[in-house]
Amino acid sequence: MTALVVDALTVAFGRFTALDSVSLAVDPGEVRAVIGPNGAGKTTLLDVISGVTKPVSGRVMLGDHIDLTQRSEAEIARAGVRRKFQKPSVFPALTVRENLEIGCGPALPARDRPARIAAVLGEIGLAPRVEAPAGSLAHGEKQWLEIGMVLAAEPALLLLDEPVAGLSDAETAQTAALIRRLRRPNRAILVIEHDMGFVEAIADRVTVLHEGRTLYEGSMAGARGDARVIEVFLGR
Amino acid sequence: MSGGVQTAIPVPIGPARRAVRDPLVAGLVGLCLAAAAGLLAAPPAPYLVNALGQLAAFAILAVSLDLVWGYLGILSLGHGLFFAIGGYVCAMHLLAHGVAATGVLPDFVQFMGWKSLPAYWAGLEHAPYAFVLALALAGLVAFVFGLASFRSRVNGVYFSIISQALVYVAMLLMYRNDTGLGGNNGMTGFPLLFGWPMGSPGVVSGLAVAALLALAAVLAGTRLLVGSAVGRRMLACRDDETRLRTLGYSTTRLKLGIWCLSAMIAALAGILYVPQVGIINPRVLAPDLSIEIAVWVAIGGLGRLGGAVIGAILVNGLKFWLSAAMPEAWPFILSGLVLLVVLVLPNGLLDLVALRPRPTWLRGAR
Known about the structure:
The complex is a heterodimer. In chain A, 34% of the residues lie in helices and 25% in strands. By secondary structure, chain A is α/β, with parallel strands linked by helices. In chain A, the strands form two sheets. A six-stranded mixed β-sheet of chain A has the order 6-7-8-3-9-10, sandwiched between helices. A four-stranded antiparallel β-sheet of chain A has the order 2-1-4-5, covered by helices on one side. By secondary structure, chain B is mainly α. Chain B has 16 helices and four strands. The chains are: A alpha/beta, B mainly alpha. The interface between A and B is large, with 47 and 33 residues.
């Protein structure tokens, strides 16, 4: 069984084809990184998986039975998919605790929430700031809070859109350690990132996208040695 | 990243305390109850009592708008529609009640040459039915309009413009004489309220007391709501609806529910307002009046229920006084007040009380 199958996915905005028959499969327990230059279609891929964008054709199967392209954002979330957005998307008017409480999702009974919130707080290291409004947090803290929010629902599929964008080297290392701790046998993690060092530290396999097509799939070491990948990232 | 010692961070009002402690709302609820008791014990001149009752009705209307605008980010520029639904149904009840008691048909029915009230007035002489009908009708109109808008993700300024168009359409409809609702003259000449002659001091006081008690109840109820888990989801939806949706929440249902509740609170304000002024006509559906409701809320302090009450009472209190003393100056004074708030106090007059400037209402709302 695979955790996520993207099957011949095509997305177009007007005459611009953002994704051109992209396929990939992610196993349970795997951390997969999707890399590629700007405009490669990485964020569009996450938009389709999380239901923000509908494709022209193709399927996105969660587990064996659920086609995510047929579901609304809220239904996809309730099926166990969570996404951390590129821009830290936390609720500024609410405290860290309140953000995490909402992150637990509508299904978790209220009596189970405090324990879940406490566990997540320990994981993301924001316990000292639990009563602070999220709007007052530093950029890196907001990134971690949002990771905590998507973690609070114990997702089966975690989508992380550039989780270390704008972070310092020390914060990037902390985030890499955090993501490695988040691996579970029954959880797949899909990460989009520009930072190759970070990708090497966290990913089991990488998928390289270029101009809406899959260029390479395999290990990060293999990607570094692949002539086409080198040309796209370094060449012309 | 290990969670260590509790650091000394200047922590703003936390969630638990925020839920129970709102001195402004508590003070206003207390003030309403004290004023209601005062009116019963030692009523001042009837015109003052009446003015106080009208102010309370406007304050309820302002709270209904603040609930959706300040806490959910939905700016309605057509809330006069729901106020008018309450007002019109209340007026129909008062006239039907008068016909049942005296047998004399209202003026506008006689002008139209009709021999009786139109068929759809049946049963409106019964107050409980009229009350339920007014709230249900406001809720139903809000539901249909809200469902169509929120499902197709009509948001922001587009929603505001459509809500404004809706109230304008309703106004054009009500100007027609053959609707059986008084046409451009509206409905007036209400003889009785619960069998008591309208305008007698007891009725005037009773209406004002009812409006004050309703304001206290609406304030307390909405305060509980915005302090609850639902209230936190409202703030979350206001600040980032997509984020909330992708966390598994149906924002359409949330928005629809609060939107309908707000419409029914606005209808309640209309129900309480019409017997106090003794008339309703299509002017309450004029777009500029609906915009004025937003002005009250903005002036008082958006996103704080007490601010909406203060704004409504301040602007309308000034209006009562100045539109009599110097009517030609009133529009300039109101415009000046709006400019002052926009330029100097972006979160309304409550900025003066808070004594520390807040950057924007988005961040500062409580």
